[in-house]
Amino acid sequence: MLARPDAYRCIECGLPYRAAGFRYYQGRLENGAAYWSDRGMLCSPQCSLAHHRKRAAEGTPRHEPAPDPFEVQPLVRR
I need a labelling partner for 35 at 20 to 30 A (CA). Which of 2, 41, 51, 65 fits? Predict the structure, then answer.
């Protein structure tokens, strides 16, 4: 069987989800990533801080938590 490519990667360093060193919520892969942003997932506290600093320098910091990327978001009718 061919290994499937990971669709998810750290947006700061590019480390693939499921790779050694990627941090998971409560240490469990099935719980999803421990760190994320509205722009994607982050693999570690170091990448989370780097992303925060980059956003602050751009002038685009978040003021509320980003939605969990693994939770299904309800559709909003307009």
Answer: 2
Compute the Cα dihedral for 51, 52, 54, 55 and give only its sign: positive
Helix (H, G, I), strand (E, B) or coil at 9: strand
Q: What is the mean pLDDT of residues 8-33?
A: 91
Joined tokens for residue 4: 């499937």
Question: Do residues 53 and 60 touch, judged by C-beta distance below 8 A?
Answer: no
HEC readout, 10-74: ECCCCCECCCCCCCEHHHCHHHCECEEECCEEECCHHHHHHHHHHHHHHCCCCCCCCCCCCCCCC
CA distance 34 to 40: 12
